[in-house]
From TrEMBL:
Bias (Low complexity) ranges: 1-23
Top-level taxon: Bacteria
Keyword Transmembrane helix: yes
Subcellular location: Cell membrane
Gene for this chain: ansP
Family, as annotated: Belongs to the amino acid-polyamine-organocation (APC) superfamily. Amino acid transporter (AAT) (TC 2.A.3.1) family.
Annotated GO biological process: amino acid transport; transmembrane transport
Protein name: L-asparagine permease
Pfam families: AA_permease (PF00324)
Naturally occurring in which organism (per UniProt): Rhodococcus opacus (strain B4)
Location of the region described as Disordered in the Swiss-Prot/TrEMBL record: 1-30
Length: 487
């Protein structure tokens, strides 16, 4: 009899929890989305988010600056990126939602942190979109036909094309990201195979044979000292931004409990192979001083080995990567802004949905801000990329920190018996989440000493923090944060 009562109580608790989850889903607008993303879309979005502009374009300048030891920076940063993603995976399995970490911040810490997390994430992707349109313009300039076209005009064209794509249905977005990811992975696999063969058979490139001796002959692992390596970690961290996109996409798939663990776990070996493996191979194939910030290191390699049109093909691939990243940024910020608007923490128009189930208001707002990037490409085309990377990095640090804090809170609540942790738990938590927070704090410190751009970037917090504070109190004063049900 007592066992029966216990089972009934458990069943009641389960129904209550499900009802509470459903109610929260309605309040945050999840029920308005089309569950159009399939498991293959989610898997490839996970890959695509982990392979982007930061690797395809940013690695060249970082190799030239930091030297071959850059591979260590990619490996260490990749490990902490994986810890963060496993923390995100646990939160997603706890409660899938298109509001992602903003929704979890609201659940675990309240509306104030959710407000800050959401707007910092929007700043991250809005500025990342500047990086992506800048990268797209740089890639197109590679072809002589476009050399005379102003960089700002190419950036504007990239934004127009991708915005049009993003305003279509989520199913089309998923299909496009699927093929974008296929192209990126295919290109990296091709590079790894060709590069490994060149290294194995000691095929000379520009008169020099590849191998470890290239490192020894050009100043060793740290040709410019330790400081440049330490400072480029900021850019390396940005290179991993976007892997949290898979958590947002979970809100638009039918069975996230089955799909997410596989997608998240696959990220670790992809980081090891595609990031660490590619950078290691690059430094073994060519001296670090042959790479530059103005050209993809993969294009540099294929041009140097003299394969006809290989540079053109690889340049098309990295152009695709930039457009893919821009597409993902518009997608993610649209969902985050809608989740916030449903709680009165973002402009009302960003809650607007199109007939195709796309949060059209938020997507257009991010696209409008990306026009600033077009302006930067007009005013300071040579510096637009680095300026946007550094400011966007603040959003990356904020987002990853909030994810780790939410996982720590979930772990704490589970220990007190308030909630049940999902079967897909972050390994070594909460210690891995604490370690990741410490790593992120170090990155912020490194940014502060990286004069002038890094120092100015951190100094911008003097403006950002008061602006967010004023925004929060303005919303509280207007009563909009209490109007979720009316939206």
């Amino acid at each position: 009899m007592s066992q029966s009562v216990s089972q009934n109580d458990s069943s009641s608790e389960s129904h209550a929890a499900n009802g509470s989850s459903a109610a929260r889903s309605r309040r945050e607008g999840d029920d308005a989305y089309r569950k159009g993303l399939t498991p293959r879309h989610i898997r490839m979005i996970a890959i695509g988010g982990a392979i982007g502009t930061g690797l395809f374009l940013g690695a060249g300048g970082r190799i030239a600056t930091a030297g071959p030891a850059l591979v260590v920076a990619y490996a260490v940063t990749g490990l902490f990126a994986f810890f963060m993603l496993r923390a995100m995976g646990e939160l997603v399995l706890h409660r899938p939602t298109s509001g992602s970490f903003v929704s979890y911040a609201r659940e675990m810490y309240g509306d104030k942190l959710a407000f800050v997390a959401g707007w910092m994430y929007w700043i991250q992707w809005a500025l990342a979109s500047i990086v992506d349109v800048t990268a797209a313009a740089i890639y197109v300039h590679y072809w002589s036909f476009f050399t005379s076209v102003p960089q700002w005009l190419l950036a504007f064209a990239a934004l127009t094309i991708v915005l049009t794509i993003n305003l279509l249905s989520v199913k089309f977005f998923g299909e496009l990201e699927f093929w974008f990811a296929i192209i990126k992975v295919g290109a990296l696999v091709t590079f790894l195979l060709v590069g490994s063969m060149v290294l194995a058979f000691q095929y000379p490139i520009s008169g020099a044979r590849p191998g470890l001796h290239l490192i020894a002959d050009h100043g060793g692992w740290l040709p410019n000292g330790m400081l440049p390596l330490v400072l480029v970690v900021v850019g390396v961290t940005f290179a991993y931004s976007g892997i949290e996109l898979v958590g947002i996409a979970a809100g638009e798939t039918k069975d996230p409990v089955a799909v997410m663990p596989k997608a998240v776990n696959s990220i670790l070996w992809r980081i090891a192979v595609f990031y660490v493996g590619s950078v290691l191979l690059l430094v073994l194939l060519l001296p670090n001083n042959m790479y530059s910030a103005s050209e993809s290191p993969f294009v540099t390699f294929f041009d140097r080995i003299g394969i006809p049109s290989a540079g053109n093909v690889m340049n098309f691939v990295v152009l695709t990567a930039a457009l893919s990243s821009l597409n993902a940024g518009l997608y993610s910020t649209g969902r985050i802004l809608r989740s916030m608007a449903m709680k009165g923490a973002a402009p009302r128009f960003t809650a607007k949905m199109s007939q195709a189930g796309v949060p059209i208001g938020g997507v257009i707002l991010t696209a409008f801000v990306t026009l600033i990037g077009v302006g930067l490409n007009y005013i300071v085309p040579s510096e637009a990329f680095e300026i946007a990377i550094n400011v966007s990095a603040l959003g990356v640090l904020s987002t990853w920190s909030v994810i780790c804090l939410c996982q720590i809170k979930l772990h704490s609540r589970a220990r007190r018996g308030e909630v049940a942790r999902p079967a897909f738990k972050a390994p070594g938590s909460p210690y891995t989440s604490y370690a990741t927070l410490g790593f992120l704090a170090c990155i912020l410190g490194l940014m502060a000493i990286d004069y002038p751009i890094g120092t100015y970037t951190v100094s911008s917090l003097v403006i950002i923090v008061p602006a967010l504070t004023l925004g929060w109190y303005a919303i509280k004063r207007s009563g909009r944060s209490e109007s979720a049900e009316s939206l």
